[in-house]
Amino acid sequence: MENFKGTKGNWSIGEHIGVVISDNLKQINDKDKAMGHSEVDYYGGLLICESVRNQADAKLIASAPELLEALINEVSILRDERARKGWTKKESFMHGRLMKAIDKAL
Fold first, then answer.
1. Which percentage of the chain shows pLDDT scores above 90?
2. What domain range is 67 assigned to?
3. In the 8-state DSSP scheme, what is residue 26?
4. What pLDDT, on a 0 to 100 scale, did the predictor assign at position 37?
5. Strands (DSSP E) along 1-106, which ranges?
6. Which residue, of 20, 30, 63, 105, has the greatest Cβ tally within 10 A?
């Protein structure tokens, strides 16, 4: 996922309800410190987001990097397979939707 510009590392639910964090403490910079994102002791890691009211939303956000990586890998496999066999109209439509989701995330 070299094209991903977001925070690297494993994302997870933080120490407090409604918080998503990363375990990548190497990525902390002066901007993070100024905004309070680096309060590792409080949040339990590098802050990705807070004030997520719905716990299901926080779980989805925390899983976003893994979902993106899986999607990119599956699209790559699909492209390789379709390069040999050709695309059906339905597969071409599905590929377009997958690429739109990937582009939105990157």
1. 52
2. 11-105
3. G
4. 66
5. 11-13, 20-22, 46-49
6. 20
